[in-house]
Amino acid sequence: MISVKNLSKKYGSFTAVNDISFEVEKGEIVGFLGPNGAGKSTTMKILTGYLPPTSGSASIAGFDVFEKSIEARRRLGYLPENTPLYLDMRVNEYLRYRAHLKGVARGKVSEAVGEAIELCSLRDVEKKMIGALSKGYRQRVGLADALVHDPDLLILDEPTIGLDPNQIRSVRELIKNLAQRRTVLISTHILPEVEIMCSRVVVIHKGKIRASDTAENLLKNHRAAGQLRIEAKAGPEAREEFGRMTGVKDVQVEQDGEFTTFTLRLDANADVSEEAFRLAADRKWNVRELVRKRATLEDVFVELTHSDI
Ligand SMILES: Nc1ncnc2c1ncn2[C@@H]1O[C@H](COP(=O)(O)OP(=O)(O)OP(=O)(O)O)[C@@H](O)[C@H]1O
Ligand SMILES: [Mg+2]
User: Which fold has domain 2-221?
Assistant: First the structure.
């Protein structure tokens, strides 16, 4: 559905996107991740025809986003980073205007707007001025705008930015719902959201693609380490003994009354829980709690994007 080949974008002498290539298949929900300034919005602006690339190419459903821009745009809905809404228009007026601009046939506009309003739960506010809506509702209007011409592909640039946790949850549900019969490319900084929603993750850092895989595989294949936390009644010798187990990188110790908390940082894929439990039992260290913490997508993200490479 999206094909990006050797795409680069320079702003003056600064390279914001540096020779990136990736594909998004029909039906996928792909999370587009990267720190501030990584090149996410720039890439999305090129895909949606708002910016010309410096070199390379991109196509939507087989149509080059620049040479066949109208064909490509017809198939995609775009929620930009800063949704440019007309604050002094009513929700339904605005959506009619946008549907018209996007080439929805005159006789179909009411139906298209009605469906977008329904999908985005905007019925209660359809006659309100956009300027009078809360951020969460404005974001829904932005989404309704993105999908009013019933595109196969949605490109959403940080759709949940600035929303409160309730609104984030409801916009996330809405996107999941929209994704049932659409392809979605979504940029966000909320990583648990990505784990819940996305079938694949593309990580960009300093204009370069650093990873493209399922969240599951990223977690499996990266060095991001898991941890094991053990709270036990044990003497200072325990730190050394835990530290000797294969797969343990280091051990941090914290005293909590008569209990000591040992935090074991582990090598990727190492699981020493059983061994640690047996060791504690042998030594008669009274274990109050033993918790394994797996590496999270956030750990992987930090590992992929903290460096200056
Ligand atoms: N119009 C512009 N002129 C010059 N530089 C720009 C322009 N737009 C973006 N940049 C630079 O290009 C780089 C990539 O910006 P981009 O907006 O694509 O990042 P992003 O990944 O979307 O970041 P964020 O998470 O902050 O939204 C940044 O260093 C930014 O300062
Ligand atoms: Mg951005």
Answer: Rossmann fold (3.40.50)
